[in-house]
Amino acid sequence: MNNPTIAIIGAGPAGLSMARALQKAQLSFIIYEKHYKTGGLWDIENEGSPMYESAHFISSKTLSGFPDFPMPNHYPDYPNRTQLLAYIRDFAQHYALEQYISFNTSILKVEKHDKGWKLYSHTGQAYFHEEVICANGTLWQPNIAQYRGHFSGIIRHSSTFKKSTELLDKRVLVVGGGNSGVDIACEAASFAQKAYLSLRRGYYFIPKHVFGTPSDVFSHGGPKLPTKLNQWILKHLLKIVVGNQTKFGLPQPDHELFESHPLMNSQVMHHTSHGNLSIKPDIDYLDEQKVYFKDGSSIEVDEIILATGYNYAIPYSEPYFDWKDNRPQLYMSLFNPKHDNIYVMGFIETNSAAYEIFTEMAVLLVNYLKTKQYNPEKAQIFRNKVTNESLDLSGGIRFVASPRHTGYVDSDTYRANLKKIQKQMNWRGYSKGDYR
Predict the structure, then answer these.
(1) Is the pLDDT of residue 191 over 50?
(2) Hey, what domains does the chain have and what are their CATH numbers?
(3) Do 117 and 111 touch, CB atoms closer than 8 A?
(4) What is the pTM of this model?
(5) Is the torsion defined by CA of 221, 215, 140, 72 positive or negative?
């Protein structure tokens, strides 16, 4: 803990994955965490967390845990927020990671110096480190959608929603086609006087179980097929399992499967088919308590909840990155082409479970950091790739042209490039058993 070389900012899942890799490599580091405990956004008491009481993991426990630290057998297929928080903290305690954490330390500013970075905390203290890894998370800066007109009721972002009883006896419109938006709309269908969900486009709704198996486990267990063939097969399987979703009032998707984030939800069709939830198109304008939609229809509601996503933000070091659509431009979603010794961990959106890919990314970064320390000439070879090489990590998938999908990567393609880099640089990759 004395003058550690590396600083990690954030003790959520991404920061803890990075910490475990650094610990295993015996590299000197410290974690700065603004909250008084680990867990990141999964701690509903962490100021600014978008978590709500009824939240569950959208991927299954089978594929979603940290490598070599599986989720407990007694957990359900889709753990709830308290189980996830307990699991993350168990991971930190199991590997004794808390000893490296400076809790209640919010980093407000990072300033570049010749041999590293000076970090300034909310207390006015300054800390110097040669390397900085930004792992502050992606769901902390709400994207507030703007509409024409004036709404006289309550209008707020979904990040402020905490419990379903907030919706009792209200007419509620939820706006947004992300997983949290659909989940909150289903809560409104159960608790509100009247519930509506506004969708800008159609999405593929994937049930959480297929033939009794968690959907991601079912998909993962199949053969590796070309992208187009895989899309065709799974799209037709959805028609068999789900049927025509337009019969449930849900709009037809305007894209192919996996070209936008699919929605993992088994409740929305129940609520639409029972009249508990009405689907509306994109909003046109607002007028007092009335909401007018682009199809010419209108409704009157008491509250609008904007589940319109989040902007990626690294507020303490924003000038040191290039940005596009509120996303930092990174090599392998990790390395900063502008500066050699400041990195981003966890700012990746992909069609895969996050915690395992976090570990693989952490191992890649550790390989680079150790090479910088012991073989600077070889490290410069990789650094040249970071600054000069442009990677296509889409896997041939034509993602929907929206800010959310800027930098979206296909997990198989990402891992293929990861292995390619490891082979070229003669670096080791992660394998089961490495961290035991």
Answers:
(1) yes
(2) 6-141+310-425 (3.50.50.60), 148-306 (3.50.50.60)
(3) yes
(4) 0.93
(5) negative
